[in-house]
Amino acid sequence: MKERILTGDRITGKLHLGHYVGSLQNRVSLQNEYETYLILADVQALTTHFEHPESIKQNLRQVALDYLAAGIDPDQATIFVQSLIPEIAELTTYFSMFVTVNSLRHNPTIKAEAKERGFSDMYYGFLGYPVSQTADITFCKATLVPVGEDQLPHIEQTRKIVRRFNQLYKPVLLEPKALVGEVPRLVGLDGSQKMSKSLGNAIYLDSTREEVQEKIQKATTDPARIHRTDPGHPEICPIYAYHQAFRKEGSAEIQESCRKGQIGCRECKGKIAQSINDLLEPMRDRRSKYQHDRKKIDEILMAGTEKVRQVAKETMQEVRDAMSMDYF
Ligand code: ATP
Ligand code: MG
């Protein structure tokens, strides 16, 4: 039997290059080797978007379309909607009985995200989202979770929760491992923070050629470089980070000519915009096949969710049995 992968995205907007290199690329390349489950995390989106649930509805199919465009094969991978699997909420509740508030408050990603969002007091659901993620991963007995670097503390917490559950009750859950993508944390166009939907510093997978060129030309570069001949500092330039991520072979040469002031930012940006467009081009082709076929996307999501329901039922039976909650 194949091992399982579970991973996914909060339904807070369309996907960008950070998602691709952090996680999506691995999902595509492993979808034949592993039984792959992709969760459209609408409940987790509510942790920060509870005032605008309608935005989740607008983005749901968009994220599914991004998966298909990126090369996810719906005949191989199973795409499903989190809120339609009530067992996930049930399992979250059981876990929350033995996870302490302090262990969540000390989670470095929770701390960083709470600060970023200006939370002085944390919402209960937000603080507990690593517990809900543990339920996402464990209900389908996934052993591998392709994620970006920011998710590592959560996977560590998941492993602890699994060990605790198995020790308290019966060893029915599996301890997963994280698989971080080729670029663990892609920097945003502002050059200071990670590329993120919420920070407005992203290049989206559905960008046109012109949008890519325009965003790249406007991106921050080394502020010390005023004239073309000024020596540059590629290590602080997001454009150089993109060369390393998307134009590997040419990046050593770029680094050298930037340091020596032999290449201008405009030319350097032109080269990387071209490489990013080369990466996105086949995605544009695949996207155009599904884009106007809402019915097809709905069929994929409904079939995926139906399949996952069965898996969830089986695991919850084992969980309830392990917890002596199999009353009748
Ligand atoms: P939001 O701002 O709504 O939290 P996000 O852009 O941070 O959105 P998530 O849905 O939180 O995206 O992340 C989905 C997956 O993509 C996670 O595995 C995360 O680690 C990965 N990821 C997101 N942004 C990046 C990035 N800039 N570099 C590498 N991986 C990333
Ligand atoms: Mg995030």
From TrEMBL:
Belongs to the class-I aminoacyl-tRNA synthetase family. This is Tryptophan--tRNA ligase. It is an enzyme of class 6 (ligase). Gene3D superfamilies: HUPs, Tyrosyl-Transfer RNA Synthetase. The keyword Ligase applies. One of its GO terms (molecular function) is tryptophan-tRNA ligase activity. Its EC number is 6.1.1.2. Transmembrane segments: none annotated. It comes from Brevibacillus brevis (Bacillus brevis).
